[in-house]
Amino acid sequence: MTTQTTDPTWLCIANLTVDFREGQWEAIDQLVNQRGQVLCVQRTGWGKSVVYFVSAT
9-43: b or e for each residue (b if 16 or more CB lie within 10 Å)? Predict the structure, then answer.
């Protein structure tokens, strides 16, 4: 059984070939791997939510 989803968290985690936009992976790495704090300032529609969602899982 295959489930289709548009949830950005699942799409990023499930797709090992995903290309993050400039600064996204660095922010996620800082939050998750380095356990640091991040101020993520990106223009509207640039994918800040992906940083938040992936880091929260």
Answer: beebeeeeeeebeebbeebbebbeeeeeebebeee
51 and 27 Cβ atoms separated by less than 8 Å = yes
Taking the model in full, what pTM does it have? 0.62
Contact 54, 12 (CB under 8 A): yes
pLDDT digits (tens, 9 = 90+) for 42-53: 888 877 888 877
Contact (Cβ atoms closer than 8 angstroms) between residue 11 and residue 18: yes
Six token digits for residue 54: 């992936």
Q: Is 48 exposed, middle or buried (0-12, 13-18, 19+ CB in 10 A)?
A: middle
